[in-house]
Amino acid sequence: MTESIPVTRAVDHGTAKLMPDVDRERAWLLTVDGAPQSYVDLDEPTHLEFEYARRLGHVLDTVPEPGRPLDVLHLGGGALTLPRYVAATRPGSRQDVVEADRGLLELVASHLPLPAGSGIALHTADARAWLEAAPADSADVLIADVFGGSRVPAHLTTLAYAREAERVVRTDGIYLANLADAAPFTFLRSQLATLATVFGELALIAEPAVLRGRRFGNAVLIAAHHPVDTAALARLTAADAFPARVEHGPALREFIGTAEAVGDEDAVPSPEPPGGTFGVG
Fold first, then answer.
1. C or N: which end of the chain has fewer Cβ atoms within 10 Å?
2. pTM for the full predicted model
3. C-alpha angle 227/279/179, rounded to 5°?
4. 12 near 54, Cβ under 8 Å?
């Protein structure tokens, strides 16, 4: 984009707006219907402004062999913040981005273009439909960051969805999801219980104030078939401007409590953020 002027466009699922950051020359905030979706700095793709994005970045950085190219499947496109991050930190990675909103994807691709040779392929499709058609054992990392407005769609919260995610992620791979909830954490607990049904290892990253039920906020869910380097994640997240806590093991099982996996017939979207304003960490 050559001019730093706001861009507003009607997209398939609302009104998208790109707003320049006055403090960073080629940095942009993307909102949809007023809800912050993404922040991207075209000159510095490793800059992750939103706290939840930084936490996802920390997990990506702890995947073995830093700098090794990865096969990554992103469910949810936004401004392509994390695909750009992976392309910069792990050159040669092959990435697929699945976004249901064609208008949004076209807006981002035209105004915030990807660098040549990025290895990032963009697809307009429903996230679950794409996942169900994806080859088994095809992703080192699967990142789910899908919001219809400010809520995770119901069909991306179920045991059937989780089984498809587990099928696509390689045995030594990792599944990541950006979720949002508040006390009593009915949604978040159910998602942890659902993923625990198909993955052997779980971890959760969130701010202490969120985990204590003091406010609505983001939580990064991690699922894998191998132990997650929670010690490294704890060091990285503790050093952030808004420090987070990494929950795992017995503490996480206690947090899940009696929550049960979600069937397709029982699925509901994630809760509406208070005041209609999405917490971005």
1. N
2. 0.94
3. 35
4. no
Q: What is the pLDDT of residues 81-127, one digit of tens each?
A: 999 999 999 999 999 999 999 999 999 999 999 999 999 999 999 99
Q: E strands along the chain, which residues?
A: 7-11, 14-20, 27-32, 35-41, 71-75, 94-99, 120-124, 139-144, 169-181, 201-206, 217-224, 245-248
End-to-end distance of the chain based on CA atoms, in angstroms? Answer: 27
Q: What percent of the chain has pLDDT over 90?
A: 89
Name the CATH topology of 45-272.
Rossmann fold (3.40.50)
Residue 215 tokens read as 């406010």
Written as six digits, the tokens of 153 are 């769609």
In angstroms, the CA 191 to CA 11 distance is 29
Domain extents for the chain? 45-272
Indicate whether 279 pLDDT > 70. Answer: no
Contact yes or no for 152/135 (Cβ under 8 A): no
d(CA 187, CA 177): 13
Distance CA 196, CA 55 (A): 21
Q: CA–CA separation, 29 vs 21, rounded Å?
A: 7
In one-letter notation, the amino acid at residue 149 is G
DSSP labels, 159-209:
HHHHHHHHHHEEEEEEEEEEEEE-TT-HHHHHHHHHHHTT-SEEEEEE-HH
Beta bridge mates, 11: 14
